[in-house]
Amino acid sequence: MSATRVIVIGAGAFGGWTALHLLRRGARVTLVDAWGPGNSRASSGGETRVIRGAYGPSQPYTRMAARSMQLWKEHERLWNHRFFYPIGVLWMAGDNDPFERGSLPELQSAGIPYQELAAKELTQRWPQINFEGIRWGIYEPESGYLLARASCQAVVEAFLEQGGEYLQLEVSARSIEPGNFRGLPLSDGTLMAADQYVFACGPWMASLFPSAIGARVKATKQDVFFFGTPPGDHRFDDIGLPVWGDHSDQFMYGIPGNQFRGFKIADDTRGPDFDPSSGERKFSDQGLASARRYMEWRFPGMKGAPLLETRVCQYEQSPDENFILDRHPAVPNVWLMGGGSGHGFKHGPALGEMVAQLVMEGGDPEPLFRLDRLSGVH
Q1: By C-alpha distance, which of 107, 34, 63, 7 is closest to 347?
Q2: Is 174 exposed, middle or buried (0-12, 13-18, 19+ CB in 10 A)?
Q3: Residue 196 within any structural domain of the chain
Q4: Is the four-CA dihedral 213, 218, 219, 223 of positive or negative sign?
Q5: 63 lies in some domain
Q6: In CATH, what number is assigned to the domain containing residue 194?
Q7: For tag attachment on the chain, is the N or C end more exposed, with fewer CB atoms within 10 Å?
Q8: For residue 29, what are the contacts with CB-CB under 8 A and spacing of at least 6?
Q9: Beta-strand runs (E) in the chain
Q10: Cα 85 from Cα 73, distance rounded (Å)
Q11: Cα 342 off chain centre by
Q12: What is the rounded radius of gyration, in angstroms, for the C-alpha atoms of the chain?
């Protein structure tokens, strides 16, 4: 029998890993992307992403993160290339933070190491942080950050080396959703046909599938800032500081200086609607002022630090922040994969493994990821 023919659209963290896992399962796979793996318009672009296990109570993501950590490490050894920097992740919590408290049994169950630290221990370990309002914390010593763009490109390189095909072309939105779908129209005028199709197009999912997805995925503008650390001072780089998250007011997070770049800080609050293709990637002055105000309060030694770089990316936001992984309701050999919602990148290896199994062996995705959970959103 001839191999199953699969086309994967989108070469980011979701699509790239899915294509690689499908290839290893014996499929003939073509990967298509309009601008290339890790490009500046993609949700998987940029320098770094957090990888952590804390996700609150009663969810599948801690278990998936544990599997992804294992796969990231395996592929580092396989490719002789470093992407995962386990510098630790610190969660700062107040008196009654259900996210952190609910994360503890999930971390234990998934086998992700963690330490529960009192306020006094936090101050002793990281005196460069002002822990005002923080009562306790979770420290994940083996979690950390990932290189984003570099790892997306490495996944596609491995995919090609193992016999995959890559095309840098745009997928036309016409003729995808109607019941007479017979192939994939590309920007060079060709029509590609396959046995199965996997769309992992991030913030473009809504425009490609206005009926099946539509308002169920919204692209929002997210400003990220990089500030210069003091010269010769390792308190605010990845030698002296872990990745951190702070739920004390709005959720702020950051990655200390690394790869000879600046101290990364971002507000996780969902920004305004954004067009990922044509949107101007200019940060807001209000966002910069807010980030600087927070940084100088929580990290006093960074007061007056110069702004080195800025980045505008986007979240591909689902209403409940859970992933979307399901068959198209009208075209059963079309799989829809998205809704990363700002936390998806780390899960690429495990999610790609999961989707490859579904495509090749059949079965149903987890109810939490299915489209019908969002039936009331139009």
Answers
A1: 63
A2: exposed
A3: yes
A4: negative
A5: no
A6: 3.50.50.60
A7: N
A8: 6, 7, 8, 19, 22, 23, 159, 164, 165
A9: 5-9, 28-32, 48-51, 84-85, 89-93, 115-118, 136-140, 144-147, 165-167, 184-185, 191-192, 196-199, 218-227, 243-246, 252-255, 263-267, 307-317, 324-327, 334-338
A10: 10
A11: 6
A12: 21
Q: How many CA atoms lie within 13 A of 146 on its CB side?
A: 29
Residue type, 205: M
Name the residue range of residue 332's domain: 1-52+145-216+318-378
Per-residue pLDDT of the chain (378 residues; tens, 9 = 90+): 579 999 999 999 999 999 999 999 999 999 999 999 999 999 999 999 999 999 999 999 999 999 999 999 999 999 999 999 999 999 999 987 899 999 999 999 999 999 999 999 999 999 999 999 999 999 999 999 999 999 999 999 999 999 999 999 999 766 677 666 788 999 999 999 999 999 999 999 999 999 899 999 999 999 999 999 999 999 999 999 999 999 888 899 999 999 999 999 999 999 999 999 999 999 999 999 999 999 999 999 999 999 999 999 999 999 999 999 999 998 899 999 999 999 999 999 999 999 999 999 999 999 999 999 998 765
**Beta bridge pairs of residue 116:** 138
Is 75 a member of any domain? Answer: no
Q: Do residues 61 and 343 make contact, with C-beta atoms less than 8 angstroms apart?
A: yes
Contact 20, 158 (CB under 8 A): yes
Phi–psi pair at 371, nearest 5 degrees: -65, -35
Total domains in the fold of the chain:
1
CB 143 within 8 A of CB 89: yes
DSSP assigned state of 257: B
| Size (the chain), residues | 378
Partners of 196 in the beta sheet?
6
Cα separation of the two ends of the chain: 42
Both tokens of 250, joined, read 């709005």
Q: By C-alpha distance, which of 48, 57, 49 is closest to 110?
A: 57
